[in-house]
Amino acid sequence: MRDAHIERLVEIVGERRCLWRPHQVKAYACDGYTAEEGLPRAVVFPETTDEVSRICRYLYENDIPFLPRGAGTGLSGGATPTGGEVVISLARMNKLLAVDFDNLRAVVQPGLVNLTLTRRVSHADCYYAPDPSSQSVCTIGGNFAENAGGSHCLKYGVTTNHVVAAKVVLPDGDVIDIGAPFGDAPGYDLLGLLVGSEGTLGIATEITVRILKKPQALRTALAYFDRVADASDTVTDIIGAGIIPAAIEMMDQLAMQAVDKSNYHVGYPADIEAVLLIEVDGLAAGVDEVMSRVVDICRRHRVREVRVAQSDAERALWWSSRKMAFGAMGRISPDYIVQDGVIPRTRLTEVLQKIDEVSQRYGLKIANVFHAGDGNLHPLILYDSRVPGEAERAVRAGSEVLRACVDAGGSITGEHGVGIEKIGEMTYMFSEDEIDAQLAVKSCFDPKGIVNAGKLIPLPGRCVEVKRARKIIEENWQILDSFPDQAAVQARGVFSQEAGREASTSAQG
Amino acid sequence: MVNEPTAVEAKASDFRFPDAPEEEKYSVCVHCGFCLEVCPTYQAWGDENHSPRGRVYLIKACAEGELPLDESVIDPVFTCLDCRACETVCPSGVQVGALVEEARGQVFFARDAEGKRDPIMRFFLRGVFPRPARLRAIRRLMRFYQRSGLRRLVHATGMLNVLPAQMREMEDVIPDIGRGPAIDVLPETMAPRGETKAAALLFTGCVMDVFFSDVNEATARVLVRNGVEVRVPKDQVCCGALQVHAGDRDMAREMAKRNIEVFERSGADYVAINAAGCGAALKEYPELFRDDPAWRDRAVQFSSRVRDISQLLVEVGFDPPKAELPMTVTYHDACHLCHAQKIRYEPRSLLKSVPGLTLREMPDSDRCCGSAGIYNLTHPAMANELLERKMDDVPAGVEAIVMGNPGCMMQIRLGVKRRNQPLRVMHTVEVLDLAYQREGSR
């Protein structure tokens, strides 16, 4: 039944905090990215840094692959066990360890939920700024791993701008402190390296973050546009006018339809192409004036209607409507893949047209929800995994969308991470030498290459082999015909599947 | 394993009985995880298996033949409190409660087929709750037990120690059983005061009428006071919620049919219900008749007329009490009111209408108290943890905790008793009734 490795894990965390029976671990087959799944070898729930360290040390010594997991809301498959890994769930390490209100610092365990931190410090008029849409469930550890962003990153920056120090368990179980709660830590910026490393270099078990004083006042406006181009020009002009809004969000008609069918119904007009949600914050004395300038700019760009929220409840509804948009896709489609491309803001209209072309070509609907202020697109490619081949098509469509972003001078990810989902596109964005440089860093931390392997940085070796294999198969397809029937069919199935995957995720064919 | 083809060849579902969890319900879940943090069991354990998303995922896996219907699915499906907090936040509108109940139905049928019945559970589900005469007998026994001195004797001799701790404690907080169940005490028809705004069938329920028949009587008085004619058909039966929660859907269907017929014969405009759990169950009767179009139509018609008492009073228009009731209270949102029926505003507006009454909100008032039907008996550890959290949240300086569900009332009475606090546990309608009674004595 259970092997010696499981026995050892149970010794470390106890019977109740170790799941290993195949049926118990099924629920850990994927995270918020559902297009690919795999069963973990076991799931463990440590509660202390020491336990994490002992788990890592044992697994590393015994060459057993592992990966960390927070709330499992990630959208790029960063927590998906693709190689029978042991999943180290940090969900039970969810304490707020210390708060220093005078110096505006908080020390948290990785499993603490993002919004819970804000709630726990709000009595002192403080909050934690990075606000991914999933902030009510995602963990700060997960945010750390993915360098998560959010609607208000336009003004306040992403996770890396708010993490100042961390205690990290390295793959071999050693525990180090990196960064500095105050001032700059001399030496190499290991903290900068770890934030956004997607659990491939180590596991943060204590994270020191900045907390901020809440802005004195804020104003939120909702603006309906007949044409996307007008909405897009509005965004450019607002920022061009020297205004730094706290957030500018955009949704297209399809996204509006989905969210309007949910509990977070706003009642968007059915014939507008885009809605902008614009927030400004700062000193009470200035916000009204800034907001009236924003409204003027909207009017100059043929806005159909622009309203400023009249109550906290109204503002909260508008924000929920935006933040629940991904989850609301279930109202119009059984599955979706969300992309995370970034483009120069000024090329929005043109890239949206390209996305529309991709949508037509693949026969898949694509809804658009994005952080318009910083050019971070979230095209949601809708598909039905029950229809044979549709998931694969959706992955390919997503890949094309990302390439369009790179071609426009942008990037394949703004805040969701690379994970397994965009690993193929990494080679489109970076040269082989650039990838090698990244791999060199990885091997310093994880020479065995077993910590969340196959995520973030593609192994060029594998790419080369797969490409070579595919070439041989393509050139010698007829050989398969001479095989006994069943074997040939099987082999063809395997190869075409592998080749299909290669075509869908690798860049230079 | 890395890249399993998504379109798997059809495997046989392990839900082998009729009325199984439906594809159109579970396929709506996009696995975003926004439900995790509101789920009491996930909050406590941090285990994906015991989260709404996890449960739906496992139900789906079982339906698609990826998992057998064994502990891997059964445990998570039965640790669910059925509190529906996940449904309130779910952007995609996944009906987690219905899916869990349907999955429990499969477990119930499977156990039946394997001859693995739980005789005690079955006795209560089939032998007691659906049978008004037996409910009355139990009620009489309990009243006799409380009033004859037998209870004192039992307590003095320590006989109760044979019961599990949870039941022993529960015994201790059973309210004083009144003269008779409302279904017997109340006349068949009660004429309203002033002009008749509507006629309502008063649904007296099972637990409510055994333990809290006073609340039923208060409900009738408050309705009459507000121009609603009250009809109390004597042949109504328990709503069937306990059966649905336990998976005994066949029995629940029989009970639903009876209640639908009783309502149709009564000619009333509304079904008035003061128990959140029953209200939700009555409103969800159509779910039981998915495979029976004729009954489904009748169930839809019936359900469209069901109103929680607070909802009905706000809908037909109620008179704010004229007498002062100087009291500071807090309000607990019963899961089956706020999550299952989306009723939050109405009970509060009733309370706020009472002159002199101060409503002090408690944090996370819509987090489950752990009662959850019979969950506090089947899963005492989790139920106790939730009760402790609930009691921690009660604001200082309140005299009463007000709510709209008998299960919560029993559970919170237990919490009050444990903490030895001078707190009353009241139904919303009792507060209103108290205020109306003071009008007379001015």
TrEMBL record, chain A:
Gene3D superfamilies per record: 3.30.465.10, 3.30.70.2190, 3.30.70.2740, Uridine Diphospho-n-acetylenolpyruvylglucosamine Reductase, domain 2, Vanillyl-alcohol Oxidase, Chain A, domain 4
**PANTHER family from the UniProt entry:** GLYCOLATE OXIDASE SUBUNIT GLCD
Domain (FAD-binding PCMH-type): give its ranges. 36-214
Task: Give the PROSITE patterns listed for this entry.
Answer: FAD_PCMH (PS51387)
Q: Organism, per UniProt?
A: Alicyclobacillus mali (ex Roth et al. 2021)
Per its UniProt record, the required cofactor names are: FAD
Record key words, sorted: FAD, Flavoprotein, Oxidoreductase
At the top level, the lineage of the source is Bacteria
The name on file for this protein is FAD-binding protein
TrEMBL record, chain B:
Free-text comment on the cofactor: Binds 2 [4Fe-4S] clusters.
Q: State the source organism's domain of life.
A: Bacteria
EC annotation from Swiss-Prot or TrEMBL: 1.1.99.14
Q: Which residues form a coiled coil?
A: none
InterPro entries reported in the protein's UniProt record: 4Fe4S_Fe-S-bd (IPR017896), 4Fe4S_Fe_S_CS (IPR017900), Cys_rich_dom (IPR004017), Glc_ox_4Fe-4S (IPR012257), Helical_ferredxn (IPR009051)
Q: Name one Pfam family in it.
A: CCG
Task: Give residue ranges for domain 4Fe-4S ferredoxin-type.
Answer: 19-50, 70-102
Which reactions appear under catalytic activity for this entry? Answer: glycolate + A = glyoxylate + AH2; (R)-lactate + A = pyruvate + AH2
Q: What class of enzyme is it?
A: oxidoreductase
Q: Which cofactor does it need?
A: [4Fe-4S] cluster
Keywords of the record, alphabetical order, are: 4Fe-4S, Electron transport, Iron, Iron-sulfur, Metal-binding, Repeat, Transport
Q: What does this protein do?
A: Component of a complex that catalyzes the oxidation of glycolate to glyoxylate.
Q: Which PANTHER family match?
A: GLYCOLATE OXIDASE IRON-SULFUR SUBUNIT
Q: What is this protein called?
A: Glycolate oxidase iron-sulfur subunit
Q: Which organism is it from?
A: Alicyclobacillus mali
